[in-house]
Amino acid sequence: MSEMQEEVVVNSTMTAKDEAAKTNALIAYGLMILGLFTGVFWFVGAIWAMVKKGDAQGTIFADHYSNITTTFWWGLGLSIICGVLTLVVVGYFLAIAVWIWSIFRVVKGLAKLTSNKGYDG
């Protein structure tokens, strides 16, 4: 292996439950990314994460489900507030900030998930 190539370390201690939790979190994150542009998949991704959260308990990926649901609820609540504030124009700017914040949380989660790390770890 050359110096330019990076060695990939695969966690060989992942159980089938860990693999399933990772796959389901990956699906939820993917749906959330689609939802950033379409809206409806934002809800589908969050619901998927809420349904599968129990299956992920006790795995290294359990906190990803908390990240997804927290991002969903905060994003939804702040978007409603932004919708009301569009009457005084400032809501448009706040909506852009909420959208960027949501992208950051989802991309950070995906990066950690694909590195076989917990969201907070």
Q: Can you walk through the features of this model?
A:
- The protein is mostly helical and 121 residues long.
- It contains four helices and no strands.
- It has helices spanning 16-38, 40-56, 62-85, 90-114.
- Helix 1 (16-38) runs parallel beside helix 3 (62-85), helix 2 (40-56) runs antiparallel to helix 3 (62-85) and helix 3 runs antiparallel to helix 4.
- The chain is elongated, with a radius of gyration of 17 Å.
- It starts with 15 loop residues before the first helix and ends in a 7-residue tail after the last helix.
- The model is unreliable at 1-11 (pLDDT under 50).
Instruction: Indicate the mean pLDDT.
Output: 88
Shape: elongated
Q: What is the number of beta strands?
A: 0
- Percent of residues in helices comes to over 70%
Structural class: mainly alpha
Head-to-tail CA distance between termini: 29 Å
Biggest sheet character? none
Unreliably modeled segments: 1-11
Tally of contiguous helical segments: 4
Radius of gyration: 17 Å
Q: H/E series, N to C?
A: HHHH
Strand % is: under 5%
Task: Give a quick set of tags describing it.
disordered N terminus, 121 residues
Summary, kept brief:
This protein is mainly alpha-helical and 121 residues long. It is built from four helices and no strands.
What is the strand and helix layout of this fold?
Elements: H1 16-38, H2 40-56, H3 62-85, H4 90-114
